[in-house]
Amino acid sequence: xxxxxxxxxxxxxxxxxxxxxxxxxxxxxxxxxxxxxxxxxxxxxxxxxxxxxxxxxxxxxxxxxxxxxxxxxxxxxxxxxxxxxxxxxxxxxxxxxxxxxxxxxxxxxxxxxxxxxxxxxxxxxxxxxxxxxxxxxxxxxxxxxxxxxxxxxxxxxxxxxxxxxxxxxxxxxxxxxxxxxxxxxxxxxxxxxxxxxxxxxxxxxxxxxxxxxxxxxxxxxxxxxxxxxxxxxxxxx
Amino acid sequence: xxxxxxxxxxxxxxxxxxxxxxxxxxxxxxxxxxxxxxxxxxxxxxxxxxxxxxxxxxxxxxxxxxxxxxxxxxxxxxxxxxxxxxxxxxxxxxxxxxxxxxxxxxxxxxxxxxxxxxxxxxxxxxxxxxxxxxxxxxxxxxxxxxxxxxxxxxxxxxxxxxxxxxxxxxxxxxxxxxxxxxxxxxxxxxxxxxxxxxxxxxxxxxxxxxxxxxxxxxxxxxxxxxxxxxxxxxxxxxxxxxxxxxxxxxxxxxxxxxxxxxxxxxxxxxxxxxxxxxxxxxxxxxxxxxxxxxxxxxxxxxxxxxxxxxxxxxxxxxxxxxxxxxxxxxxxxxxxxxxxxxxxxxxxxxxxxxxxxxxxxxxxxxxxxxxxxxxxxxxxxxxxxxxxxxxxxxxxxxxxxxxx
Lengths: 237, 404
Ligand SMILES: Nc1ncnc2c1ncn2[C@@H]1O[C@H](COP(=O)(O)OP(=O)(O)OP(=O)(O)O)[C@@H](O)[C@H]1O
Ligand SMILES: [Mg+2]
What we know:
The structure holds two protein chains of two kinds. By secondary structure, chain A is of the alpha/beta class. Chain A has helices at residues 47-54, 77-87, 103-113, 118-131, 147-159, 177-192, 204-207, and strands spanning 3-16, 19-32, 36-40, 62-67, 70-71, 88-91, 165-169, 196-200, 212-217, 220-226, 234-236. Chain A contains seven helices and eleven strands. In chain A, a hairpin with a 7-residue loop joins strand 10 (220-226) and strand 11 (234-236). In chain A, helix 4 (118-131) crosses helix 5 (147-159). Chain A is globular and about 50 Å long. By secondary structure, chain B is α+β, with helices and mostly antiparallel strands. Chain B is built from 13 helices and ten strands. Chain B has helices at 3-16, 18-54, 73-78, 88-93, 130-135, 161-168, 210-217, 235-249, 261-304, 306-314, 319-355, 365-392, 395-401, and strands spanning 60-65, 100-115, 118-127, 139-142, 156-159, 177-180, 183-191, 205-209, 224-229, 256-260. Bound molecules: adenosine-5'-triphosphate and magnesium ion.
């Protein structure tokens, strides 16, 4: 499998007043296309920082990052925005839907930003909503939807541009158990269709569903556990 | 991003924050409407004044003693050359060219009038029969001065409408003997009410034969000579003839000024245009105030919609994309405000026209373009700062802190 993500000695420092926080402290990581990876670790260990970096929302203080073979550390702002639009889908804990827009319009946003013509947009948005079981909710505003439905609208938005990498930061954090379970199954189904999936979670039960589980502690990768499709877990790295 | 999508997205944002959008819309439209209304009034006033001037009489020339300053009069004055006075003979000499239709001498001054104990001070004009034809005045009753030799001074007078009302009330004025200073004159005509014309308030004038006025005012010379030229095409020829004739009569000294109506008209036109520009400039200040309001609103938009901007960035909007969205929203807001202002301004000036038909108050075309242009420009200019602020937002920070 070709590499989707290659990180080499990634550091991310934050200056807070006089102090420097080492949020990521020398991360080396390779994630292949189609993998399903969970990221766990205590609060403040750098999980969100890592995910933001992978999603090109943030830039490392040092180190190299290759995404789908492209060196993104050398890209300018516009190129990174374009790469986000083409390659990456985000799912956030708090959904981040625009309240004045309908489900359809929220899902349409990435395609609008890509400058795609309305006819193709319409078709792809319908398709995305349909595949997430939201076909009959297209005209609803976010406040007319349940939490689980909102998160599924957000997932539809994340995949509508057919990205290759799906990043989810505690996607079930604001959901009850049942809808959380549905959302995770939805994400896993997308992964089975070939999308590379990285999920940050606090929930060990969720973390263990992934075929590869990363544990971060103090900005370092403490454990990287791989499990064959149906076999026992094996330890690596 | 496609332009149509920017418009739709902006429209949805404006509709989503209705109260705020309406406030800016209102400010913008008040600015545009006030520019339009004020220029309409200025333009109306200009047309009114020009119209009045044109009604002064056609193809008129006015001769006055002395050179105008622009022609070296200052030097002449400094050397102590006192301009030769205009005389009745000068005026007579001017009748001898075929380009000249008629000539009227003119003297003005003040005189005390009295009838049966009622008296007041009024303007006195000395002239001749020709004057009424040149100026196109209308009579309310009786007739104008008789066509007699200018040297003769029959004791008759024509009075203005207002004097008639004040002195005679319900009595008939025609045929009455009016005391003019030491002299008694029979009233032979009353001028129709003229309202305020540009040069003189005719309603408060007494007009007598020129020789009588000269003796009443105790002046041997004329104040002006008023001349009607036969056609517009002959104006320049007539002017040349007048200057040459008077120069010859004044021993080679060119010591008179001939004013054409056009020159006066042009001066007034310039003054009133400048006035209109000035007023509309002041009105444009309200547009700038509206621009500041747009800036404030867009700043609030950027702060309140932090997480939305963060989200758009996460979904692939570049800095330029965000800039385009915020500026698009400001442009749409300004254009809607300008459109509303156009509607209000145009219907407002239509209302003024229907209420005051004398005042052709319609905003000139340049004012339409200028007000909409300035509205759009200030809207965009003042949202540049908020838009840049939005474009520079750090997406991670915006997504986290602006949660809601
Ligand atoms: N913008 C920032 N400025 C300063 N420090 C930051 C910033 N973002 C993160 N940090 C610090 O970096 C470290 C890692 O933060 P991060 O948000 O990645 O943790 P996390 O693993 O996601 O925690 P949680 O499980 O609570 O979400 C923390 O110590 C945090 O305080
Ligand atoms: Mg986190």
